[in-house]
Fold this sequence. Notes:
This protein is mainly alpha-helical.
Amino acid sequence: MLLRSGKTYAVKTPGGPAAASKNNKRVCTSESGMLNTILLMCKRLLRSTYIWLRDFLYYTMLCGFLCTLLAMIASSVIIRGHQPSQSYYDTLGVSPLAAKSDIKAAYRKLSLQTHPDKLGSSTFDNPAYLHIREAYETLSAEDHVRCTYDLTNGIEGLWSSDDCIRARREFNAREEFRRLDELEKARQKNENEKKERQRRREERWRQQEERDQGAMLVSRSAAALKGFFANIHAPW
């Protein structure tokens, strides 16, 4: 240790060399523990990074596979949607300008060929027959049904869009008139039934009153006869 006079002297450590060695061991142990802690943290960090990268790659590949699969499905649906489908007119073999009589004749001809009885089947689940029947029911229905089918499928038929709208309005008007007429008929029927029930009640009351009056008249007549014969046999 350096003094103010410039001289130095050695400072003795308490405990001597043994204490110094012990302190050195503690420092080494502390440094070794810190190093182990750092190594353990690095190991955990590397493991977490590895797991994250593994999961990231897995889900990335999975998402890529799903996207590819969805794209294939969507493309097949789009291609199928652009493929021209057979219309009801093609099914029956008639023109979009055909009259209802022609449609009915074509349906009868085809139904005889595909009818379950003709094919020796007891069920009506033949797809060809069901499709022909569906086509006939649509094309032979009200005008607004057929023109709506034509406009929806881009078929140039008997009606334009204005004609179709007018046909729909006329159909709605007829349906409303029919509904009101049915309501009026139902009201009239209910009213007539009420009147009939009232008439029958009054008729029963009248008949009961006539029976009561008849019974009363018979009772009075019997009493009068009884009194008459009693007077005849009475002593003078």
